[in-house]
Amino acid sequence: MNTKITCFGEMLWDILPSGKLPGGAPMNVAIHLQYQGFTPIVISCVGRDELGKGLLDYLQQKGLATQWVQEDEEQQTGVVMANVSNRSEVSYDIVQPVAWDYIQMNDDLRQLGAESDFFIYGSLAARSEPSRHTLLSLLEVAKVKVFDVNLRPPHYSREVLEPLLKQADIVKMNHHELMEIAGWHQAFTDEKAGMEFLKEQYALQTVIVTRGENGAAVLSDEGYFEQAGYAVEVEDTIGSGDAFLASFLGNHIKGETYPEALQQACAMGALVATHKGATPEIAPEKVTDLING
Q1: Nearest to 205 by CA among 188, 222, 180, 181
Q2: DSSP-derived pairing of the beta strands 118-122 and 91-94
Q3: Residue 94's beta-bridge partner residues?
Q4: Which residues make beta-bridge pairs with 12?
Q5: Which domain holds residue 61?
Q6: What is the C-alpha separation between 31 and 50, in angstroms, rounded?
Q7: In whole angstroms, what is the distance from residue 144 CA to residue 274 CA?
Q8: Domains in the chain: how many in total?
Q9: Per the database record, which ranges form the Carbohydrate kinase PfkB domain (predicted)?
């Protein structure tokens, strides 16, 4: 498809008790968009080491270009110790510093950012100044900016997050993150009121809130829409939110309404949770079957 989508941020290995799996929200989103027929670009950085080579090989296996993934001679490839003892609420120990903390700005990147129709970025890659500087520079030239909030203590602060929110057009966050960010300004007990506040406070076009097994909600200029969750047997939730975002955005780009895109995204996120790892390829008919019951 001709829509140009760029995903900026971390590429890493999730270290699980059963072994290691490729991960990082921007890469996961890009892979799920690739499954839908798009040709997204990943901007990241890996170490010049075996783990880095493994991630570059993995991207190529998934049909994604590696030319925008920088290699750092000094920093190691990113790793995360993932605790999946609670299958529905994975916790993470994210090593710092690593290569994706040092994504460097250059003229070619600036041109790529300016040419992208959708620029997807997260909060985690902004934890260190070098990558944060590059990200903010790219946001100055990007068209539609999609902020995938990913609050991992202690790797964020209000000071870092607010400039990213002010640049965004579309923001996706979970219900815990909604209450925390809205709570910077005032206390909310009602999710919809919190979404309305953030939409106005940061001049956002669209606010998407995921609710785990309870589905998701979208607030846009077109209205407020909710979708119930789908009951599945969870293997682990790693990458479910990434698959949700890729599905929602991809289907909306293809012309689906917000309620239709939300329904598809909730089903996709649920189905990914029935697999181990972040990027299983889910056949479209599986999504249709889950929606139709």
Answers
A1: 222
A2: unpaired
A3: 80
A4: 23, 78
A5: 5-292
A6: 21
A7: 32
A8: 1
A9: 21-280
Q: Which amino acid is at 36?
A: Q
pLDDT tens for 161-171 read 999 999 999 99
Kindly give the pairing relationship between strand 69-72 and strand 12-16: unpaired
Please state, in angstroms and rounded to a whole number, the distance separating the CA atoms of residues 127 and 152.
10
- Report the length, in residues, of the chain: 293
How high does pLDDT run on average in the chain?
95
CA distance 293 to 277: 25
At 277 the pLDDT is 83
Q: What is the pLDDT of residues 147-157, one digit of tens each?
A: 999 999 999 99
More confident residue, 81 or 256: 256
CATH number, domain of 109, equals: 3.40.1190.20
For 84-185, strand residue ranges (E) read: 91-94, 118-122, 144-148, 170-174
And the tokens for 211? 């609710």
**Residues of the chain by 3-state class (helix, strand, coil), percent to 5:** 40, 20, 35
User: pLDDT tens across 54-96, in order?
Assistant: 999 999 999 999 999 999 999 999 999 877 666 556 677 899 9
